[in-house]
């Protein structure tokens, strides 16, 4: 690529690279042996990584002079959560050439690391490990290019063709779908022998729906692997002769494991970005309930509370019923505020400012 490539040409190259991986649906390879996974997915992902690296180098030539060369020398922690949060923080700032260069530099290091990991995979690897490495590379392509393209378009006045989904937005949606699955399992109510069949069939249906949702590829791979194993066990249980001792014993054990899984996925609310978000929203809402003379929550506040879906069963019940009565919200919000205060403290000045804004007509 010409070192003097125009912003429009750079943007087109970024978009073309993302389009290469958007058509890859890794779901159909879950449970496949590693050789099949590598044969089908490694070539297009390697091609996309190399194209992304080349484009990031061109971005740096335009916005920051020569970029780094050679292998990455500043590895990020495995899992890349710091990378995700760092990218989100830069995207949220005022657009500048420095922001484009910072993102391009971060992306270049991260993409080179991902390329090295993908190329190091061998057919004897555990299949879920191979899929995890490939899936992480695909995510990093989308995340890094989406961020660079977003800021580049803001800076140059271009119409954006790619979006940038923050880790918070993704985590909020993951929590919402996990809440639906947890409700279908209902770990607090053990099924009777007569209810067991209908309950397990219903849970199996909800798992199938979740796997088909657009958010599914953004679930952590360990959760997806466990979901697939539980789904396979439900299907195997459905093939057993009904109304037998074996069917009941196997089904009861299966439901117990599903209940355990429901408790595990409830821990999604412990993610740092969700703890910070929840502490902030709850502080605003609890403060409003303490200070207001209104009988009902303002619509704007209720819209903010919708982002808490999945954090607490009692809150979910109020949200699901579109309950606006302040008196109904005071207790649950005070309880949540105490719980979250043990993890994080929301910024008091920001909370105060938002409370004042809620009181304005």
Overview of the molecule:
There is one protein chain. The chain has 14 helices and no strands. Mean pLDDT is 86; it is low at 66-79, 351-355 and 357-361. The chain has helices at 7-22, 34-63, 81-91, 97-120, 127-156, 167-185, 193-212, 221-238, 245-265, 272-291, 299-305, 313-320, 326-341, 348-359. The chain has three domains: 7-156, no CATH class; 170-267; 272-359, no CATH class. Helix content is 70%, strand content 0%. The chain is an all-alpha fold and 361 residues long.
Describe the protein's topology.
Elements (H helix, E strand, L loop, with lengths): L6 H16 L11 H30 L17 H11 L5 H24 L6 H30 L10 H19 L7 H20 L8 H18 L6 H21 L6 H20 L7 H7 L7 H8 L5 H16 L6 H12 L2
State the gist of this model.
The protein has helices spanning 7-22, 34-63, 81-91, 97-120, 127-156, 167-185, 193-212, 221-238, 245-265, 272-291, 299-305, 313-320, 326-341, 348-359. The chain is mostly helical and 361 residues long.
Keywords, please?
361 residues; 0% strand; flat; mainly alpha; 3 domains; single chain; 70% helix; disordered C terminus
Instruction: Figure out the total of helices.
Output: 14
What order do the SSEs take from the amino end to the carboxyl end, as H and E?
A: HHHHHHHHHHHHHH
- Report Rg: 24 Å
Strand content: under 5%
Taken from the alpha-carbon principal axes, the silhouette is flat
């Amino acid at each position: 690529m010409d070192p003097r490539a125009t912003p429009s040409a750079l943007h087109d190259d970024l978009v073309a690279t993302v389009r290469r991986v958007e058509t890859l649906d890794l779901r159909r390879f879950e449970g496949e042996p590693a050789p099949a996974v590598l044969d089908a997915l490694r070539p297009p992902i390697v091609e996309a990584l190399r194209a992304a690296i080349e484009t990031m180098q061109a971005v740096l030539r335009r916005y920051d002079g020569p970029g780094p060369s050679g292998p990455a020398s500043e590895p990020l922690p495995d899992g890349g959560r710091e990378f995700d949060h760092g990218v989100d923080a830069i995207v949220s700032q005022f657009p500048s050439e420095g922001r484009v260069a910072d993102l391009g530099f971060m992306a270049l290091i991260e993409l080179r690391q991902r390329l090295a990991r993908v190329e190091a995979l061998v057919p004897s690897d555990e299949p879920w490990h191979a899929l995890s490495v490939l899936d992480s590379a695909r995510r990093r392509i989308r995340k890094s290019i989406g961020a660079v393209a977003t800021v580049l378009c803001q800076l140059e006045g271009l119409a954006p063709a790619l979006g940038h989904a923050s880790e918070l937005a993704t985590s909020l949606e993951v929590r919402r779908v996990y809440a639906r699955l947890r409700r279908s399992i209902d770990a607090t109510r053990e099924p009777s022998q007569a209810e067991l069949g209908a309950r397990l069939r219903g849970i199996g249906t909800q798992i199938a729906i979740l796997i088909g949702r657009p958010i599914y590829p953004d679930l952590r791979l360990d959760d997806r692997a466990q979901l697939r194993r539980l789904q396979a066990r439900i299907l195997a249980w459905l093939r057993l002769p009904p109304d037998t001792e074996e069917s009941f014993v196997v089904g009861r054990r299966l439901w117990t494991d599903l209940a355990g899984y429901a408790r595990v996925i409830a821990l999604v609310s412990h993610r740092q970005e969700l703890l910070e978000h929840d502490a902030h929203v709850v502080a605003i809402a609890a403060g409003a309930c303490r200070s207001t003379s209104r009988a009902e929550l303002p619509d704007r506040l209720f819209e903010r509370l919708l982002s808490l879906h999945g954090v607490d069963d009692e809150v979910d019940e109020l949200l699901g019923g579109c309950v606006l009565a302040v008196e109904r919200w005071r207790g649950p919000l005070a309880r949540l505020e105490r719980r979250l205060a043990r993890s994080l403290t929301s910024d008091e000045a920001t909370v105060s400012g938002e409370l004042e804004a809620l009181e304005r007509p």
